[in-house]
Amino acid sequence: IETMENNPSLSTSSQNENKSKWIKLNVGGQYFVTTTTTLSKYPKSFLYRLCQENPELNSDKDETGAFLIDRDPIYFGPVLNFLRHGKLVIDKNLAEEGVLEEAEFYNITELIRLVKDRIRDRDKATTQPHSKHVYRVIQCLEDELTHTVSAMSDGWKFEQLISVGSSYSYGNIDQAEFLCVVSKELVNNHTGIPTEQTNKAKLMQEQGSRFI
Predict the structure, then answer these.
(1) Which of 66, 145, 173, 211, CA to CA, is 20 to 30 A from 114?
(2) Nearest residue to 48 (alpha-carbon basis) of 57, 91, 7
(3) Per the domain annotation, does 95 fall within a domain?
(4) Contact at 8 Å (CB) between 164 and 177?
(5) DSSP notation for 85-114
(6) Residue 15 — very low, low, confident or very high, per pLDDT cuts 50/70/90?
(7) Beta strands 22-27 and 67-69: pairing type?
(8) Of all residues in the chain, what percent are helix, strand and coil, respectively (each to 5)?
């Protein structure tokens, strides 16, 4: 019985058989060249069975010997790159749903999961409202402070009280003037336009004396 040690040619032949073979695919009229090792990473996938030339797939070849696959070549690119390096990279001009459609067609379970996660994160980011803080400065007298602060409602918060440093004659009583700084978080709608101030906020402003 000949062994690999006795006949080095057997060892070389065996190594050649184990080497990954180059394979050409004709996806929707566009050619892709890769290896059987790349396409065979997921045994339950369509591409793995294609490499085994499974007769059940009934896959035809064109005149160049490339396997014919009637799918969109634009969305096949991210699928092939995922098989090559295990990372999901989608061009900004491509829709994630299109890549998901191809991942499901080729039955690549890990890619399906990653694309679904990407779509969920994208939708969550686009539906999450954006907000910004709006500040108001209310000029008021000393005896108006209590009323001004107590009148703050509907999201307005007291931030800072600043003494003007001068007195104001109010009737027969001298009163100091203050600047009351308040803020409110305004949530933007999906169009990016800040929501209008509510009636309570407007009423608070009117009761807060003079604005600067």
Answers:
(1) 66
(2) 57
(3) yes
(4) yes
(5) HS-----TTS-HHHHHHHHHHHT-HHHHHH
(6) very low
(7) parallel
(8) 40, 30, 30
Token match 């064109």: residue? Answer: 62
Taking each helix axis as running N to C, give the angle between helix 109-127 and helix 96-106, from 0 to 180 degrees, rounded to the nearest 10. 160
Average pLDDT over residues 33-44: 95
The answer to whether the CB of 45 falls within 8 A of the CB of 79 is no
Provide the whole-model pTM.
0.54
- In a shared domain, residues 185 and 168: yes
Confidence of residue 14 (pLDDT cuts 50, 70, 90): very low
Kindly state whether residue 164 falls inside one of the protein's structural domains.
Answer: yes
Residue 190 domain boundaries: 131-211
- Same structural domain, 44 and 102: yes
User: Residue 153, Cα to own-chain centre: how many angstroms?
Assistant: 36
> Does one domain contain both 45 and 106?
yes
Distance CA 120, CA 70 (A): 28
Torsion angle in degrees (nearest 10) through CA of 83, 89, 94, 98: 40
Asked whether the beta carbons of 136 and 182 are under 8 A apart, the reply is yes
- The pLDDT of residue 179 is 80
